[in-house]
Amino acid sequence: MRPVTIAGVGMHPWGKWGRPFVEYGVHAARAALADAGIDWTDVDLVVGGETVRGGYAGYVAGSTFAQALGWNGARVATSYAACATGAQALDTARSRILAGMADVALVVGADTTPKGFLAPNAGERWDDPDWLRFRLVGMTNPAYFALYARRRIDLYGATPEDFAAVKVKNARHGLANPNARYRKEVSVDDVLGSAVVADPLHLLDICATSDGGAAVVLVSDRFAKERGLTDGVKVRAISTVTPTFPQTVLDMPYLSTESSSVVPAGDATFKESLARAAYEEAGISPEDVDVAEVYDLSTALEQDWIEDLGLCARGEAEQLLRAGDTTIGGRIPVNPSGGLACFGEAVPAQALAQVCELTWQLRGQAEGRQVEGARVGITANQGLFGHGSSVIVSR
Fold first, then answer.
1. Where does residue 283 rank: exposed (0-12), middle (13-18), buried (19+ CB within 10 A)?
2. Is the Cβ–Cβ distance between 60 and 66 less than 8 Å?
3. I need a labelling partner for 312 at 20 to 30 A (CA). Which of 228, 304, 343, 376 fits?
4. Percent of the chain at pLDDT above 70?
5. Pair 295, 380: CB distance under 8 Å
6. Could you tell me whether strands 201-202 and 196-198 are parallel, antiparallel, or unpaired per DSSP bridges?
7. 211 φ, ψ (degrees, to nearest 5)
8. Directed axis angle between helix 299-308 and helix 160-174, to 10°?
9. From CA 290, how far away is CA 274, in angstroms rounded?
């Protein structure tokens, strides 16, 4: 598949600002357009990542952002895929460009989140696994994160100190990121001394909920040549594959696995299949990756993603961490932005924020946190109900 050019990226800093999500998205969109040197009137497609917490306007995010920027006649689309929303929106824009139906696409995601950990919207929905896990067994997100962490301890010998070291690494990375909400160094003792939320995870092991926005401008080959943008960062692959039956590893929000007694399990888990599809589409292998931005809802989950992306063998992520391989200056830096540890969750924006970070990294513009010589980057996200994404960009 032909790559598509990233002409511009922009973000609204993460925090708890208490403003409508549209304001964050407009700020990010204008920053991305300015970065691209493209006028709003040149945009012929707007794809919005919606937030289910934004009232009615949250469900039609494409037109909401288009209206806020000023009606210009652009086509619109809206995507929702939980935490993979941004990547799915990016895929919609890329598909229309490759189909010859758009030349300049603006992809925007933004969110205003409630205080505390995320929970389902109000109302009774007995066919909704996300609602049921809270209602029937009180399985909050951190409870799932703790199960994944305990699995790493039992299978691979990971320790709470290892998980704390992930937070220490990401906090150090985020110090130089002007868009990060938390810009403060922490120690292993700080993490282990914070309140236990769901054993073995402490408060500082788990990401917060945040307000923020991110935007990406994609352009066609024709437009890129006309504007001299041919040397930009390219989107090489976007994977949004769904799980394959049977799933033998417990995944949020489901309460059980599926039997493989009749139909044998495949050779890849759902999260592994996301990365494999991306590598296949891009025509590269994990060995080609220079930098990764992964979905660190908890410190232990970052370790899982490193293995899911094939950046090391199963059970070896702690070895990479202890050797310093996943820090800036190491063999395969992970989350040089600071990750969700420093940003928190702004659900429709976070997959786009990862692409923004990798774009800056590959351009050599990530001041204070630059991965030197980075040419290929990969992202990973997972949403509820079989939504996930992996994006590969290259220079």
1. exposed
2. no
3. 343
4. 99
5. yes
6. antiparallel
7. -100, 145
8. 90
9. 18
Instruction: Dump strand ranges (E) for the chain.
Output: 4-15, 45-49, 75-79, 104-111, 196-198, 201-202, 211-219, 233-239, 291-293, 376-379, 381-382, 388-394
- The rounded distance, in Å, linking the Cα atoms of 353 and 330 is 22
Identify the CA nearest to 79 among candidates 98, 99, 67, 93.
93
Q: Which of 324, 372, 368, 334 is nearest to 354 (CA)?
A: 334
User: What is the pLDDT at residue 9?
Assistant: 98
**How large is the angle between the packed helices 299-308 and 141-156, nearest 10 degrees?**
60
Non-local (6+) Cβ contacts of 275 within 8 A are 239, 286, 308, 309, 310, 378, 380, 390
**Rounded distance between C-alpha atoms, residue 82 and residue 21, angstroms:** 16
User: What is the pLDDT confidence band of residue 51, given thresholds at 50, 70 and 90?
Assistant: confident
Q: Tell me the residue type at 364.
A: G
What is the C-alpha separation between 290 and 278, in angstroms, rounded? 15
Helix (H) or strand (E) segment spanning residue 85: helix 85-98
DSSP E strands: which ranges in 103-208?
A: 104-111, 196-198, 201-202
57: confidence class by pLDDT, cuts 50, 70, 90? low
pLDDT in tens, 233-274: 999 999 999 999 998 888 888 888 999 999 999 899 999 999
Give the DSSP H/E element, type plus range, for residue 343: helix 339-343
List, in sequence order, every residue forming a beta bridge with 393; answer none if it has no partner.
235, 377
The residue with tokens 């929702």 is: 80
Half-sphere exposure (Cβ direction) of 217: Cα atoms closer than 13 Å = 27
3-state secondary structure of 278: helix
